[in-house]
């Protein structure tokens, strides 16, 4: 996994976590769900990158 991809995935995950917290704070279920979805998407991307790395070695 390239460093740039890792940073991008971590940033996306942090953004999702912030959205989720904000949604919970203001009682906005849609924002909470979007935050969880962003985090899941970042996790999937990261897993894909790890799989690519495993195939290279």
List the total number of helices.
2
In percent, how helical is the residue content? over 70%
SSE string, helix = H, strand = E?
Answer: HH
For the sheet with most strands, the description reads:
none
Which blocks of ≥5 consecutive residues have pLDDT under 50? Answer: none
- The number of strands is 0
Labels describing this entry:
57 residues, 2 helices
Describe the 3D structure.
By secondary structure, the protein is mostly helical. Helix content is 91%, strand content 0%. The protein has two helices and no strands. α1 runs antiparallel to α2. It is elongated. The relative contact order is 0.20. The mean pLDDT is 92.
Layout: helices, strands, pairs:
Blueprint: H1 3-26, H2 29-56
Summarize the structure.
With 57 residues, the protein is mostly helical.
